[in-house]
């Protein structure tokens, strides 16, 4: 089977809900990262054979095959097709895996994987609420209700279940959240994000500015300030401070074949080593990255000691904590530049966003292998392993 290579990976800086990116249409936000890929790499963008766009809330301004609309709004030729996919929080990680599979199969040579989510302009759950308001029913069909009687699948409840199952405390979660903010602060101040962040021009009352710094980082976070945040459920452990932040953002990864490297004079930054996707319990839901990682190691013949850095999406603090515990990983190697608790989780954009951060961190530390995984709605998880070249 042919190899697939990552040539470039970019993201926008995260925008808080109602923050600096709130005035940017999601189509234009997505176009910014596609333009950046075209600008940063010296090849004819018409050679891109497909754009696979991850997006979770595909309604309103993100409706109508948002990926195609983003291509049309970008600098890319309108001859490039696009498809929009939804694997919940793993949507753009799956877009990356589909892109890699197209290249590895030999049917495509250059594919752009990307993701978009404006959680300010197209709020989480808005499409479901529209159908409920109109009396058109919900996702819970009679047969699904029969299989899972009385259960409304909830990531929040899954997070609380994860806390109890793995024996974590509120202090454990807040400590991990603090570390996320501290690492994100250090990365920002050291310029670690400079090569991955695409500046986006935004309008402000004081005039136009370039948004190029993640808005969600609490530079003054302390255990005291985080522990003062109220619980989301009485008797629980999850708070807004130890969960991911609602975020606006876009990201993209350019994936090519060895033939494309030679024909277009491109320089690879990483090789795709393993692509895994699994599914399990849809109720506890958020635990699947643990078992998906087991499968990835089984299929690749690798072990945790082979991996230099890991990006495990911080949807809720118990997810990376449970993953660390299950696989016996080194805590100093996880989310080394902070994660979604500090940087935000723009749903459909998070998969390729995490890859941009993982790739740059791996290069900065001269590591060889990196692993990325995230929990997803319905009890699913993707794992992607890369080798820096």
From TrEMBL:
Its EC number is 2.3.1.16. SUPFAM superfamilies: Thiolase-like. One of its GO terms (molecular function) is acetyl-CoA C-acyltransferase activity. The active site is at 89 (acyl-thioester intermediate), 345 (proton acceptor), 375 (proton acceptor). Keywords: Acyltransferase, Transferase. Signal peptide: none annotated. Residues 5-258 form the Thiolase N-terminal domain. InterPro entries: Thiolase (IPR002155), Thiolase-like (IPR016039), Thiolase_C (IPR020617), Thiolase_CS (IPR020613), Thiolase_N (IPR020616). The keyword Iron-sulfur does not apply. It is an enzyme of class 2 (transferase). It comes from the Bacteria. The keyword Transferase applies. Residues 267-388 form the Thiolase C-terminal domain. PROSITE patterns: THIOLASE_2 (PS00737). It holds the Pfam family Thiolase_C. Belongs to the thiolase-like superfamily. Thiolase family. This is Acetyl-CoA C-acyltransferase. It comes from Sphingorhabdus lacus.
């Amino acid at each position: 089977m042919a190899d697939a290579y990552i040539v470039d990976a970019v993201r926008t800086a995260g925008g808080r809900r109602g923050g600096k990116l709130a005035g940017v249409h999601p189509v234009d936000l997505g176009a910014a990262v596609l333009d950046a890929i075209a600008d940063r790499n010296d090849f004819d963008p018409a050679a891109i054979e497909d754009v696979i766009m991850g997006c979770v809330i595909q309604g309103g301004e993100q409706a109508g095959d948002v990926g195609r609309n983003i291509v049309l709004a970008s600098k890319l030729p309108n001859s490039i097709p696009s498809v929009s996919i939804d694997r919940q929080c793993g949507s753009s990680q799956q877009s990356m895996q589909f892109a890699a599979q197209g290249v590895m199969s030999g049917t495509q040579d250059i594919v752009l994987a990307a993701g978009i989510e404006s959680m300010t302009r197209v709020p989480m759950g808005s499409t479901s609420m529209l159908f409920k308001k109109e009396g058109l029913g919900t996702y819970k069909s009679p047969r699904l209700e029969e299989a899972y009687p009385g259960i409304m699948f909830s990531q929040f409840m899954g997070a609380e279940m994860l806390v109890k199952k793995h024996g974590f405390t509120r202090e454990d979660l807040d400590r991990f959240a603090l570390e996320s903010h501290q690492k994100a602060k250090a990365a920002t101040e050291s310029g670690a994000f400079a090569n991955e962040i695409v500046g986006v021009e935004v309008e402000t009352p004081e005039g136009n500015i370039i948004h190029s710094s993640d808005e969600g980082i609490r530079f003054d976070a302390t255990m005291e300030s985080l522990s003062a945040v109220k619980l989301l459920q009485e008797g629980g452990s999850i708070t807004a401070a130890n969960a991911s932040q609602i975020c606006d953002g876009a990201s993209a990864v350019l994936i090519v074949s060895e033939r494309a490297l030679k024909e277009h004079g491109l320089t690879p930054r990483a090789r795709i080593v393993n692509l895994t996707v699994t599914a399990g319990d849809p109720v506890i839901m958020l635990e699947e990255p643990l078992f998906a990682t087991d499968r990835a190691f089984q299929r690749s013949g690798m072990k945790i000691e082979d991996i230099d850095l890991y990006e495990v999406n911080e949807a809720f603090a118990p997810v990376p904590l449970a993953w660390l515990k299950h696989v016996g990983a080194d805590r100093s190697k996880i989310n080394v530049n902070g994660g979604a608790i500090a940087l935000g989780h723009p749903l459909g954009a998070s998969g390729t966003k995490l890859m941009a951060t993982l790739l740059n961190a791996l290069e900065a530390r001269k590591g060889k292998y990196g692993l990325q995984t995230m929990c997803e709605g319905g009890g699913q998880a993707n794992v992607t392993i890369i080798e820096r070249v």
